[in-house]
Amino acid sequence: MRITGISTHVVGTPWRNLTYVQVHTDEGLTGVGETRMLGHTDALLGYLREAEVNHILGSDPFAVEDLVRRMKVGDYGRAGEIVMSGIACVETACWDIKGQALGVPVWQLLGGRANAKDNRIKAYANGWYTVERTPEAFHKAATKVVERGYLALKLDPFGTGSFELDHAETIRSLSLVEAVRDAIGPERELLLEMHGRFSPATAIRLAKELEPFQPSWLEEPVPPENLKALAKVAEKTTLPIATGERIHDRIEFRELFESQAADIIQPDLGHLGGIGEMRKLAATAETHYVLIAPHNVGGSVLTAASLQLAGCTPNFKILEHFNDFADAEIKKVVKGAPQVVDGYFTLSEEPGLGVSLDTDAAAEFPQQQARFDLWAEGWEKREGTGGNKR
User: Fold this and answer.
1) Sheet of 30-37, strand order
2) Domain map (residue ranges) of the chain
3) CATH of domain 3-104
4) Residue among 9, 139, 248, 295 flagged as catalytic
5) Which of 9, 55, 139, 195 is the catalytic position?
6) What's domain 107-353's architecture?
7) Which of 149, 154, 312, 343 could, after both became Cys, cross-link 107 (CB 3.0–4.6 A)?
8) CB distance 352 to 17 below 8 Å
9) φ, ψ for residue 366, nearest 5 deg
10) Mean pLDDT computed over 94-113
11) Is residue 9 among the annotated active site residues?
């Protein structure tokens, strides 16, 4: 079996573009992968056009390791977010092809079921708080999440906070967290996101004030470039620390593990090179007693791929899900899209990823000049700041 070509499809919303890549073969099998780029979709498409000629055409989709190696180091330059995201789309599609050809789900090819109690993977909701920043609005929105059966949810309550958070904004942010905890009750998981906003001193102060609400983790409390700053926060709080969505090569996690500054890592399968690279990283994390909870702000193909990893990974904690609350209508572009029922995904038994792209439905959502600025007033509404592009 050989790869005869790839095709790309961009599904656009005002705040995010989702890029789907189909890999086609001479035996009629087609696999699909996905990533979500922020502000670099055209750059990704440009890279994939060159990579198709230089590396992908004529390759054996079963030889995933070889293809990833050539795409990552064959151009010699250091692979960053764009290259690793392009690799992820193609690599994921190859696993999909391999599973289809062998008639088994990808998680079976990666070692078999290891972390799916009753064949289920726990989910947490994100993208649900597209409301005014008031306790009443957040309480009402969180109640709707509970009504949908979710047992966990995440929020960033800190507005446009950057380095510091003044007293008034601190009180406001804490009131939002208090309202959400009241809405969901003590038994459900509350996950707190900081988006790398703060200095260590501010993050430590906020962590202390957030402890009474018993969050399951504090995510990216400081910018991701300085691991000593993250370690300083970790040393001063009892809350678990989560980070990693902005690291795009598994090798770059080595220093994070050595620092012991994170309790949960959050790599994005669509940016880290795909399923195989994530599986290797998860195994390394396990040797450091670190859990994995992938960043997952894409659509249903990326969710399906992340669930394949979940099924065979002993230290897998929970999977993020946006598409019940943010851009829910885009779920129709993927046939067999994973669904959350009573707070859990069901691990698919279908061959490959268990999903397929509906290109006609995808065409209903053309690429947009999507922009998402976490430091702009009202970002939490996820309305975007760009206009139609195509």
Assistant:
1) 3-12, 17-25, 30-37
2) 3-104, 107-353
3) 3.30.390.10
4) 295
5) 195
6) Alpha-Beta Barrel (3.20)
7) 312
8) no
9) -65, 155
10) 97
11) no
